[in-house]
Amino acid sequence: MKIPFLSFDSMHSAIRAEMVTAFENFYDSYWYVLGDRLVQFEKAYSGFNQIKHTVGISNGLDAIYLALKSLEIQAGDEVIMPSNTFIATVLAVSYTGATPVFVEPDLETYLLDPTKLEAAITSQTKAIIPVHLYGQACQMVEIGAIASRFGLKVIEDNAQAHGALYQGRMTGTFGEINATSFYPGKNLGALGDAGAITTQDDSLAAKSKMLRNYGSQQKYTHEVIGHNMRMDELQAAFLSVKLNYLDEWTAKRQEIATRYREQLASCDLIVLPAVHPDATHVYHLFVIRTERRDELQVFLQDKGIGTLIHYPIPPHLQKAYEHLGYKKGDFPIAEELAQTSLSLPIWPGMDFDQIDFISNQIKSFFS
Ligand SMILES: *Cc1c(COP(=O)(O)O)cnc(C)c1O
Fold first, then answer.
1. Which is the closest atom of ligand 1 to the Cα of 64?
2. CATH number of 246-366
3. Mean pLDDT for the stretch of residues 260-270
4. Is 0.70 topped by the overall pTM?
5. 203 falls in which pLDDT band (50, 70, 90)?
6. Which of 69, 153, 186, 209 is catalytic?
7. How far apart are CA 288 and CA 186, in angstroms?
8. Which CATH class is domain 9-243?
9. Residues spanned by CATH 3.40.640.10 within the chain?
10. Is the CB of residue 207 less than 8 Å from the CB of residue 176?
11. Using CB atoms within 10 A as the burial measure, which of 2, 38, 180, 262 is most buried?
C-alpha cells in the first residue's frame, strides 16, 4: 500500500466544480487585486473565527510581521516565543529588528509552557507569540494573565490551528492581533500563498490594512512606509469555497487521530500527542515520538508510507540565528523534540484501512 504524507485528492476532487466556477467568475471579473472577493472572504473568515476583523495578507510570515509592525515592535524590543516553533515565527520578529527570545515548550503538549514565561521576561520584553503548534490550542488564559500582569502584547501564531478552542474560545481571538496562514498544506489552504491577520481592535485592523497596501488608506496618499503584502483576489475566491468545508475536514482529521490512538495505544515505545483538558486539537499534524525516530522513518518509507519531521533543527541551532549565540544544550526540550518527533500521514479523506496499515507497520517495527 502506498500512502503519501499528504494528499489533496479527496478534498479537491469533491470541490472541483465549485473551484472551477470560482476561478471563472474571478477571471471574468477583470478585477484581480483588493476587490470584492477579498472583502467577502475576510467577512466569511471573521464569521468562522468569531472575530471582528480579518485582514487578508500575502502569506503567514508576512501576517506575523505586519501584526508585530502594527503594534510598533521594533529594534531594542524582545519578543518571546516557543523554542520549538517553525522558523517563520522567528523570521517575522527579526524583520522588525526586535530580538527573538525562546521559552521551552511543555514536553507533553509541545506548546509554550506558561509556567516558564515569567523567567524570560525582561524590561525589554514587549510581546509574546504563542504558537498553536500541530493544531492544538495553547493555554491562552494562563498566557494572557501573565501578559497583562507585565503589560505585554499577545500575538497568536494560528497558522496550524484554524478552529481550535481553549476553554471554548477559538484560537486567533485571544491576542491583541493575531496571524494565520493559508499555505496549501494548512488545514485551510489556498492554491498558493495566502495568510491573514485577525483582531478585535478597529485601529489595529486599519493599521494592518494600511501596512499591507503601501502605507496608504487613500490612493496615492502614503501615511507610513508600507509594503505590498495583500492577499490575491484569486486566493480569496478559492479560500471562500474551501472555508465552507473546513468544519467537515477538521472532524475528519479528528476521527483519523482517534483511530491512530486506538491502533497505537498498545505500542508503549512511542509517545502519542497529549491534549490539554481545556484545549481542543484540530490535528494539522499527528506527531508521535520515539527514540528510534530515524530508523522508524526509513522503515516506513520502505513500506511506502510517507512521513515528515516537524522540525529537525530548532531555531536556536539554525545557522541563520548563529548571531544570537546559542549552543546545543541551551533548549533541551526543543532539541529532544527535534530528535524524536515524527509526523504521520493525516488528511481528510484518508480511510481506516490506511491508518490501520500504518499502525500495524509501526507495531511490527517495534516487535
Ligand atoms: C506555515 C506557518 C507559518 C508561515 O506561514 P506561510 O504562509 O508559509 O508564510 C508560520 N508559523 C507557523 C507555525 C506555520 O506553520
1. 10
2. 3.90.1150.10
3. 96
4. yes
5. very high
6. 186
7. 19
8. alpha beta
9. 9-243
10. no
11. 180
